[in-house]
Amino acid sequence: MSVDTLFIGWDVGGWNCDSNANSRDALVVLDGKRNLLGQPWRGNLRTAINEAGSTREWLQTLLRYCQIECNDDLPPAVMAIDTPLGFSRPFLNLISGRGAAGDIGKSADNPYLFRYTEHFLFQHGLKPLSAVKDMIGSQATKGMHALARFAAEAVETGVWRNGAALTAFEAYPSACKSSLRVRELLQKYRTVSATTQPEVWDTAGFGSGIDHEDKRDALLCALVAWLFHAQPDALYWPDAGVPAGEGWIFVPEDALA
User: Where exactly are the structural domains of the chain?
Assistant: First the structure.
């Protein structure tokens, strides 16, 4: 494969999303010039996760699902994953019997429901979901399980790796909709100009096999993976206050109010 780095976007479905018409796993793979490789894929990755004996085997399966020819000499992959990849420290303390948090107020400030990174996004005009209250616990545990299997080394806040083979982190496609930088990158894949119709985000505005919202979100994740590698200053990185182990949602800086 004559590609220096693969950029993979994974929009995560539930563990048993095979017959879920609205939400399944979706994958999009880009090369270093943001060309779409193979075809966007949508289905359930549970079997691929269960059967892969190594990170290499898992990545090879993902590429095969996307109709991308590959061999044993895989290039490094950067993967942006659309699901919470951690729980808040107060929540973990609560369920492990290590004590309760203080008084509980409104939802957006609830330390059990949201992590530091989500509180930060609330303060900047975004509305991230909660792995605890918004019925995405299945997706969250699926993403965390895949990390534990294939990219278990936490090299810095919110970033996991398996050597040079795979770098993975959490993305948030909905935040990209207010990013002018991402809008510009998206023009490569659209059939409807975002300049003339900036409000169009449904799949009718896309070509390149992006025929479902899950695939669109996977494309947005793949673009964030590319930014992470090629233009890291375009993303907002975690500050020193993030509790260890909670993870971080990487979003474009120009998406923040």
Answer: 6-87+116-255
Q: How far apart are CA 128 and CA 108, in angstroms?
A: 10
Distance CA 26, CA 218 (A): 6
Is the entire prediction scored with pTM above 0.85? yes
Beta strands in the chain (DSSP E): 6-11, 25-30, 41-43, 77-82, 153-156, 159-162, 166-171, 235-236, 249-252
DSSP line for 206-251: B-TT--SHHHHHHHHHHHHHHHHHH-GGGEEPP-TTSPTTS--EEE
DSSP β-ladder status, 159-162 and 249-252: unpaired
Mean pLDDT by 10 residues, the chain (257 residues): 89 95 96 97 98 96 95 91 95 92 87 95 94 94 98 96 96 93 91 57 80 95 98 96 94 94
